[in-house]
Automatic annotation (TrEMBL):
Residues 1-15 have a biased composition (Low complexity). It comes from the Bacteria. Residues 1-15 are annotated as: Disordered. This is DNA ligase (ATP). It comes from Mesorhizobium abyssinicae.
Length: 298
């Protein structure tokens, strides 16, 4: 667990002036993962994580008393929030948007008790033009995790046929997230329509395995191909974010061959040796945004 992370003296790759109050406070009490452990995790992954969280609208899951206590899903600032967590106004509706500019920003989130960082699939400079598509695979209870991996691989094959770059991460929960990097060009409606059509095509090809309908009933024994993450203002957990879940897992970018070999969605607990070993390998998402092309409808 976290003790192994502490034993690794190379933990900090990023520095911050943010001082944690109660660094020893256990945010995941069962796993003995403290606020300091969480900050150390972000310092370690920061070179990989930065391009996915800086200057993007955020939603935050806060659990100031640890994941067993009260939780808040928060999109706006609240009193006492550090100014290292930046604010802007959504020009379309005047709603406040939170974002971070640098490692101090994520350190401020940790200090604030944030246990999950969620992102929009766009940057604050191009709020109307997503730079990624996400397929969030949500299995019904009882669906074998192997079938969820097969679904991810199925999606990969179909995206390959369309010559769309594709990458995969564990959710840290029950599923996987398949991402398509985009050069910002299409708007939210176009991207969401594309994702919806794609999910419906999967359902039509294998109605026993997949559904493109959110309802619990449609999902019975199936995997919901959640395309709804692609709407304006919708969020997905950020790569490398911790999860407010049992196991203190993180959402981890992996390679397709690693997935094929049988990685569980919750395979990477924060500070665990499995996670540290994964982070010693080459960064599988390094060229994420270089791979993006504009989405062509046709
Ligand atoms: P799993 O693999 O277990 O499905 P997940 O992160 O994909 O993990 P989902 O339930 O599929 O979990 O996704 C929930 C999504 O809904 C998140 O991406 C999050 O950004 C968004 N969301 C919207 N409102 C909330 C809320 N109140 N609490 C948590 N998530 C929320
Ligand atoms: Mn999901
Ligand atoms: Mn979902």
């Amino acid at each position: 667990g976290a003790a192994e992370a502490k034993a690794a003296p190379n933990a900090a790759s990023a520095k911050t002036s943010v001082k944690l109050s109660h660094p020893e406070k256990l945010l995941w009490p069962d796993e003995k993962v403290s606020k300091q452990d969480l900050l150390d995790h972000y310092a370690l992954v920061w070179p990989r994580m930065e391009q996915f969280v800086v200057n993007r609208p955020l939603s935050l899951v806060r659990a100031p008393d640890g994941i067993g206590g009260q939780r808040f899903f928060q999109k706006h600032a609240s009193p006492g929030m550090s100014d290292k967590i930046a604010r802007m106004k959504d020009p379309t509706d005047g709603e406040e948007i939170l974002y971070i500019k640098d490692f101090d920003g994520i350190a401020a989130l940790v200090q604030y008790g944030v246990v999950e960082v969620h992102i929009w699939g766009c940057t604050i400079d191009a709020l109307e033009k997503p730079d990624q598509i996400i397929f969030d695979l949500d299995p019904d209870e009882g669906v074998d995790v192997k079938a969820v991996r097969e679904a991810a691989l199925d999606i990969r094959g179909k995206l390959d046929e369309l010559s769309l770059a594709n990458l995969v991460k564990t959710s840290g929960g029950k599923g996987y997230h398949v991402l398509v990097p985009l050069k910002p060009s299409a708007d939210w409606d176009e991207v969401k329509d594309f994702a919806h059509d794609f999910a419906r095509a999967l359902e039509q090809a294998s109605p026993d395995r997949y559904t493109a309908t959110l309802s619990k009933k449609a999902r019975t024994g199936r995997i919901f191909v959640d395309y709804l993450r692609n709407g304006r203002g919708s969020t997905t957990v950020a790569p490398y974010s911790s999860r407010a879940k049992k196991g203190a897992t993180v959402s981890m970018p992996v390679t397709w061959p690693e997935l094929e070999k049988g990685l569980a969605p919750n395979a990477f607990p924060l500070g665990d040796s499995t996670t540290l070993d994964q982070l010693k390998k080459a960064d599988p998402w390094k060229d994420f945004f270089k791979l993006g092309k504009p989405l062509q409808r046709g």
